[in-house]
Amino acid sequence: MKLLNKLLVMSSVYSIVFPSLLVVACNKIENSSSSLSIEQIDTFINNIKTEEDLKSVAEFNFETTFGRKKKLSDTLPTEIEESPSSLKITLKDKKYKDNISISVENARTDKATTFNRSNINGTVTLFVTFLNRKNNKAQTRELILSGLSKNGGFDHNGRQDVDPISAFGGHEGVEKYVKSDQKERFKYDNNNYIRTLESMYNPNVSSQKVDIEERFGLKISDDEKNKFDQLAEKVGFDSYYNAALKGFTLPVNENTGKDTAKKLKVNDRPEVNKGPSYTDALGATDYFKTNGLARTLINETYKTMAVQTFQVKFTYKKDFADEISLLKNHISLIKSWGQSELKDFKEDQINKLEYEYKLQIEKIRKEIATLIIEDKGIRAAKEKEIQSKELKLKNEREKILSHTNETLIQLQNEEIKKLETRRDKGEEVGSESGTMWIMDYQLNSDQPTVFYFGTNSHVAKAITNNLTAVSITRIKETVKVGEKLMLNSFDPNFETFTFSINSSNKSSISAIFHATDFIDKNPSDYLTKKQADKYKEAGFYADFAVIEFDFEKLLLSNTNFSVSSAGKQVNEYMSHNAKKIADIITNSYATRGKYIKFKSDSYLTDYKKIDRPIIIDSNSRLKDLENIYILGYPTSESDYYLNQHEDAKQVKDKKNDFSLWINADSKYYGTTSTSEGFEGNYTQDELSRGNFLSYQIGYRSFIDKPGLTDAFLAAHRVGNDLYTLTQNGKTRQYFNFGLELMPRFYAPSGGASGSSVRNKNNELIAVYHAANGSARTGLATMFRSPGYNYEGLFGDYNLPQYDLIYGTGKNQKRSYRHALEKKYDSKGIKTKLFESGFSKEKVPENFKFKD
């Protein structure tokens, strides 16, 4: 119990609650009319020692919404755990009923790491208080209640029940884990994670090693593997076998004709599935809500971020340029194949297909395993579903094996024709929604009209000649800290400005910088010959871009834009000029003084700054640590905070709306209001915090630095395919690249792309670009990397030194500064970030690398 009192946030998984004085006071009877003595009542209570004793003298009912009563046989244990006071125990004998008050103070279910044993067995542990109303004295009993409803181990909402503490073997295990150093913690987490991956790859065979040569094409001798593992331990990387199972990029020895060279082989398949970190969930109020907090600004730091951050939507006519270009590249590649390359391609496609089907089939088998004996119909249906999938797999495998170069080229051409037909009709419209934030502005007037917004490259790629409209949603500066907000289009705190785009104002919006090819290396410089040939045209990128908005050009007249708020048109801005409109949209950023900055040091070289204690020793230690703050606008479709009844209108429209989202605990939802007469439920120290980095294992490449990773090694692609981008009429594929972080408590749905990661000083650290709900974290590309030397572990590859903003890294060739210098240096224009000019010499000293 001492351990739990120290957890960062008190866990609701296990706590014993003693009778409340309030309950005692409210139920005290000064003058009982009963003839029973105090001793008789105490004797009656003392005789209730077991479930059977209590059931023989009392009736049980579980009260749900609006007072509806359920029998125990219809009530799951987790329902009682969630709302113990809803379990009503009423004594049958009136004379005892009048003199004894019975209340269920708390309830506890038995949880395994990923399922609830109590819901399988139909039992729950109760903490029941018996109050003798004559002397106002209470006794608490711990009783096991049986005869409850059962299921396959899921909770009463049909969710997989998870107990993070069970993952460590109980409270003693957590205490041991906390005392371990980061490498020891990694070893513990990693061993469990690898066992899970092994069972995923070998679903029908337990505790069997995966053949990484057969599965991933990684041919390496035991001696080479041992040498790798020894050096990996030294530089802080995982073992060869473990890294292979995670889908990491790994070295193989390749004969070059003259000698043997160490080259890298990427996992050329869809991204490997990721699981969560139970360390992240320790102390969380609700495991299933550890993806973040919706529609609440819990402190001034988040408010500052909010007024500088926007939900943006770009609407465009689809021209399918990326898709057509990629198919043409496929044709060129297929034409170059001989029989060997064609055979390899077919084998690769079959491996991917089999892997995907195995995962689907294994998921169904796990569902079957959780069924109870009586579920014969469901079992038969699921077994039939497995047979259907096995038949589909067989048919698709045969179809792949039948292909020749010519049939594959024919397929590509057929797809191109379909896309060209759709393009020529010009009827299809697409949109890209994301999050963007003010980064910079031009200094050419006291009321600037040219602003620069940071976001993701995959959001900014929607800005093409086919753009037809842009919408910018801002939150008003008058929003209150602690206020529970509604969805964007329902809440009067938000305003949406929509501008129509045509040939006259098309140049007003442009992506001045995509973080592509920013160092003087290409993937082919490091990859094996086979993969280097395949990806000879590919490049490196970080998912970051800067968008230039020229509001003077954008606002053609007072007829090409509209403003709405809370479902109503706003007409008060229609007579304003471009300067005023820019000032309103940006919440007077240029004159308010709370300017963004960039963080010049790195967690990679000074991890202690962000190394959170899993157990609180003192508040002063927390204050010494750097918290990270993240805010964005994901789609509301996955906003699980909405109440089906209270928020019925918002629930109905949530698929087409957006929710403000931050990286905070769900416990703050609806509980942080500080309106007059109410001080709130939490201290200012608690509310002032942000959060920390994730302990998730599947993305992490630096074993002793939770939450940091080398993207090229650990996450070179997000999802199934490499990133594609068309620039200057040419479409290229890109490998995800650079130093990235994984945040704790931030994995919202689509739309959060582009969320900024900052510290309390409003210093920008990273931009969030990929959420993974199953891993309960995501990836954010860091603006600056000090570089990292792997001492030959990956051949010639080392994490490079770079700065995406200031462009001062060794061997760096592109940055935001470079883009401004190229476009504006000769025109005498300066920006807030570059008040002295765009040359490298003018960069502040703290952003110049020392080596």
Automatic annotation (TrEMBL):
Residues 379-429 form a coiled coil. Residues 299-770 form the DUF31 domain. It comes from the Bacteria. Keywords: Coiled coil. InterPro entries: Mycoplasma_peptidase_DUF31, Uncharacterised_MG067. This is DUF31 domain-containing protein. It comes from Mycoplasma putrefaciens Mput9231.
